[in-house]
Structure formats: C-alpha cells, structure tokens
Specification:
Rossmann fold, about 40% helix, about 375 residues, alpha/beta, BirA Bifunctional Protein, domain 2, 3 domains, five-stranded mixed sheet, nine-stranded mixed sheet, single chain
Length: about 375
C-alpha cells in the first residue's frame, strides 16, 4: 500500500472521478462568485457547544465556504460537489484531504453515487480493490434507543469487562462502545440496525437495494459507528490493506446550522492520505463532447454502472446522476455546451439502448449499450 501519494496525482484523479460521477469542484463556484458581493460570515452561533470530531470540522469548513460564496442547494437543484485542500499555485499540504458532497437530496441513490465515486478514486490511487463497510446509526430516535441498549449492555457486563469501560460508559456511552470495538470486546455488542426507527429502516433498506442492483460490493459492519451528534443514518468507510482511507456519513443536522431556512439532507465522504510534491499546477480543462442525461430508476442504476466503463475508456463525457429532473440535467448540459446529448429513459434502459442527439442538428441515433463505447469513440 502506498503511504504517500503525489499531490498532482491526487488532484488529477479527483477531477477525473468528479467528471464521470457528476461532481463539480467547489472552486468553480468560487471563481464564478468573485466580484459578487457576499458577506464573509463566520461559523454559526448555533454551533457553539457542539462537539465536532476532525472529519466534522472538515465538513463545517466546507459548508462555511459554500455559504460564503452563495453556493446554496435546494431540493429542486441539489449540488454535487467535491473539494480539496490541494490548491494550484500554493505549497502542497502534507496531509491531503479530498471531500465529495451531495447537498439537498435525501434519496438513497445519493449515498451509492458517493460510494461508487470513492471506490473509483481509491482503486486508482492505491491500485487495490477497497473494502467497503457500511452501517446505519439511524435518526435521533434510533440513537436514543441504541444508547439505552448500550447502557444495558455495559451494566450487565460490568463484572467481566475492564473497569475503564464502565467509567467511560458513564461519560459517553458511544465512546465506551468504540473502546470495546477497538479492544475486541464487541462480540455481543448491540447493533444499531436492530434499533432503527421505521423511517431509518426504510432508508437503509433502500440503500442496500441500490447497492445490490448497481453491483456495488459492500460488507455490513454492525461495529462501524459514528459517535458525534452531527452524523445520522448511513455511515461507511473504505479500507485499503486494512487501513481506513475514507469515512462517510449523512449529516442533515449539521446542514441546518448553515442553511436553516429549509431542512436539507446531505451526505459526504472524506478521503485522507499523506501527500508530497511542490506547487501543483491547475488541472487542464477537458472538452466534454457528451452529456449523459437520464430519467427513472432503471436509467439511474445503469448510469452508475456505465460511469466506470466510460472512465476506463476515456470517453469525454460527464453526467449528473444525482439530479432527478430531466429539464435540470439538460440545462446543465447546455451550460457545458456539449455537442452531443446521450439520453436514456426507462424504455431505453429496459431495451439496453441509449439515444445520441446532435445538439446542433437535432438528429437522433439509437445506440445499443453493448457497443455504446465504441460508437461514442467513433463520434469523437
């Protein structure tokens, strides 16, 4: 396993993965906001007293930047963004952080898109297949129920467990659970998924269904928990050689501190590794000849699987998998000025085809998926 990765490689791979899975660099929005009057606000007062772990601090900094440049999501226009502390033209940080975020959408599909994007990123950087471990801590109702079960667990085993566990449990029950997991005392530890509320259970079942239908490899991990109160529902990690390189979770409650007017859902994945290098150059822009737009669950699931095939074949294509509205997807494609639209609806997904539309002539050609990549490369 690589312990240190050149910063330039990290930046390049993040750009490529973001392109194929529909994530825009936050820096693009920052550049567009230059010269526009935005009040540079500090952290919300409501965050005072909220305990933040290091990853939560990273997410909070990201949300602050989003708000300060006027990058505001909505249920109609969710934002899929990626961000990094590697800045072209500045000295390279010793610890590189790359974040992928989905803001403004509650669908389980969102979690799968982020997981798939991070699988692609870690696979390319480490030249190994990552192990994906996933769990759900549920909502506030679930966490309260789970905390009570943990309390009973530590009381019943007070005489057999080390004394420090009982002391820790009085202070923070989830911290005690983490301690038990770290020291392999977790064989009988209650699983959070056994205490999910009805809403959280449905959400987790939807996620597992999407993982199965998109052929995304994963392991259920009942010992994977998140202790901070800012996290909710899905949590996951990616391991390379037994070492965690990615941590991800939903963070709806944290979003409300920055965007209080409308309750919004959000999911993130944070990749961290040691980096090296001198001042990094800006990644070259790519002329994207194809914008892939799709509507319906069948087409969305297929588009997730196709993203990796497009990426491996270097087809100059991008898509917005997490955006539901076809109108919004086409609007985004028009802004990119791609010469061609690749269109897939439910009918095409079931028939194993896609429609290629020349935006200048409006001419349409039906392409079978079995030879899609070869036909698109011939168009290029």
């Amino acid at each position: 396993m690589r312990d240190v990765i050149p910063a330039e490689e990290l930046l390049q791979e993040a750009h490529i993965v973001g392109q194929y899975y529909g994530f825009t660099p936050l820096s693009v929005f920052a550049e567009k906001s230059r010269g526009t009057a935005h009040k540079n606000k500090g952290y919300p007062e409501t965050l005072a007293g909220v305990t933040l772990d290091p990853i939560a601090e990273t997410v909070v900094s990201f949300l602050k930047q989003c708000r300060n440049i006027g990058c505001v999501p909505s249920p109609r226009q969710p934002l899929f963004l990626w961000h990094t502390n590697i800045t072209p033209g500045r000295p390279v940080q010793k610890k590189a952080i790359i974040q992928f975020h989905a803001l403004g959408t509650d669908r389980a599909l969102t979690d799968v898109i982020i997981i798939r994007a991070l699988i692609a990123l870690t696979r390319d950087l480490f030249h190994e297949e990552p192990v994906v471990r996933i769990n759900s801590m549920g909502d506030k109702e679930t966490r309260a129920r789970y905390a009570r079960e943990l309390g009973n667990f530590f009381k019943k085993r007070a005489e057999t467990l080390p004394e420090e566990y009982a002391t820790c449990a009085k202070r923070d029950i989830l911290e005690a659970a983490e301690l038990a997991i770290a020291h392999e005392y977790a064989d009988d530890l209650p699983a959070p998924t056994e205490h999910l509320s009805d809403a959280s259970r449905r959400r987790f079942e939807d996620l597992l269904e999407y993982l199965e239908t998109t052929e995304t490899p994963y392991e259920l991990a009942h010992t994977l928990i998140n202790r901070g109160t800012v996290w909710n529902d899905t949590c996951f990690e990616l391991l390379i050689g037994g070492r965690r390189v990615v941590w991800g979770s939903r963070y709806n409650d944290l979003m409300r501190h920055f965007f209080p007017s409308t309750p919004l859902s959000a999911t993130c994945a944070v990749f961290q590794t040691a980096s090296e290098g001198k001042i990094v150059k800006k990644a070259p822009s790519t002329r994207l000849r194809f914008s892939f737009v799709h509507i319906g669950g069948e087409a969305k699931r297929l588009s997730i699987r196709l993203a990796e095939e497009f990426r491996k074949a270097h087809v100059p294509l991008t898509q917005n998998i997490g955006v539901e509205s076809l109108t919004e997807q086409i609007l985004l494609a028009e802004r990119r000025n791609s010469p061609y639209l690749l269109i897939m609806g439910r009918k095409e997904a079931l028939e194993g085809s896609a429609i290629l539309r020349n935006r200048q002539t409006q001419e349409e050609t039906i392409l079978p998926l079995v030879s899609l990549i070869e036909r698109l490369k011939a168009v290029v």
